Amino acid sequence: MSHEALIGIYCFIGMLFIVLAGFPIFISLILPAVIGLWIIGGPTFVLEQTTTATYNISSSYTFAVVPMFVLMGIFAGESGIAEDAYNAASKWVMKLRGGLLMATIAANAIFGACSGIPTGGTVVFTKIAMPQLIKQGYDKSLSLACIASAAVLVTLIPPSMPIIITCILVDLSIGRALIAGIIPGILLVVLMSLTVWIAGHLKPELMPASANTNVTWKERVFSLKLLWPIILIFLIMMGGMYLGIFPPTVGGAIGAFSTLVYALALRRMNTKSILHAFWESVIINAQLFIIIIGGMLFARLIALSGLAQGFNDFLLSSQFPPLGIMAIIIVFYLLLGCVMDLTPIVIITLPIVFPILTGHLGFDPYATVIILLFLGALGSITPPIGMSCFVVASAANTNPVDVYRGIVPFFLVQLAMVILLIFVPGIASWLPHLFVH
Q: What is the pTM assigned to this prediction?
């Protein structure tokens, strides 16, 4: 192994230690990247790399798609779309054992169609669903774990921000990749709901047989009126992007504008809340872009050190079977997902993992995007750390251990979903290819 590749490995290990020490993610990425680049090329080389990366990202029109979708997600949260989705879904399934947990899962998917920010959905549904779940007698740990696990749906359901960023980095069609997440997202809703149903029958003490509320069929049908504006916004935005009527950047702007019109029409936002939404969008974009810049710098270190190519050559020369390579990637992503957010994971690992899966193993690139993002999101609920579990625990003002106690069934079903996508990648790739043909 070359001297530069060893530098890349040491910097990668150092990055993990800095993350575990509690430093912000962008510092954990930038500091070892600068040190590694300095050792490889000297101070002038570091200055060239840092200034070039920062300028290219901040001035690129391609990355302009990110602020628009962030703004759309904030408008979705402020306008009460999540609460509408939860109320509508709960009216249809609350009489089933575990119905309110199923409603939480379905509402996450619906909210994801207008948000795209996984962490935002986690916090919102902790505030909306937990009081109702506790009131109806649901087990606290299982409820918290369900909310944390359902955040993965926002990663899959378009307009997913992680999918958009990944497509920018690997130069894939954003519209086709977003479409690729629809069937896996719907299938995951079904599997997670089935998990809740099975858990309720195996351990009935975890949840009531049905909610202590009578709902008529008229109320169920009437609740659907809460969903049609969400569906309309989704169809306008995704249809326009995929049919080539407008690019993703314009699609994000149209989605944000449509969501704002929806909120104003229902009088759910005023001037003060609109200004607050814009300000929050600025803050989130500032946080996101500094992570993207840090991740790009670290990715440059990995590329320039030869670590990515060296790892690829090692796998090819060692003649690992395809399933063995996939097992290594799964473990790698689960470990990273324990301690890092999905965005830096994607930026750091794509130069290493994406060519292996699409080249050596021959996976469809759009299925690969969904598999990798699914793995990274699954890492966020993987004990003993799992960032999504900490977010839910913080929002619920409880100990993260309470979340971990109920996470195992959801973790297993989502891991099974990843394995299913690996063996049947057409679940993700079929729909975008169908639209093309």
A: 0.82
